[in-house]
What we know:
With 162 residues, the protein is of the alpha+beta class. The chain has helices spanning 14-27, 57-75, 81-95, 102-111, 128-134, 149-159, and strands at 3-9, 32-41, 49-52, 116-124, 140-145.
Amino acid sequence: MTAFTVWKFDSPDGAEHAATVLKGCERDGLVKIVDHAVVSWPEGASHPTTKQAHEETWRGTGWGALWGVLLGALFFVPVIGGVAGAAIGAIAKTTENAGITKEQLHKIRTEVTPGSSALFVVTEQGDLDRVGERFHGMHSKLIDTNLTEAERDELYETFGGK
């Protein structure tokens, strides 16, 4: 199953470090990364920086296009009242086929703030226990995912926290 997850880190460089660890997990055959993007929001910056990976061009193209629209609507559209709501409502139509709801988009937008970072990742076929060992000690929070409730519980158990 393809899993979409968004992880928040309490520092602007936490997500980039986590992406490096995750790539190491992939090299060791513990997980298959379809694509990922990193959002880093330094304290005092007016908006975050984003970096899209496109793991493999033939697979990454679809997600890469989604990353651009998703991250742009979440972090680069003014966050003033109705404008932000309209942007998130519009992007929800694009993301619903990926299993990402309007409510999840709102949650992501409110969780990722100055002084933090986020790792947006799409994975397949993972050994969660072994990947979780590599992430031990990283201060992260699962913001949201398209996984079922049982799969979420396993993720929380492996990586900690709710």
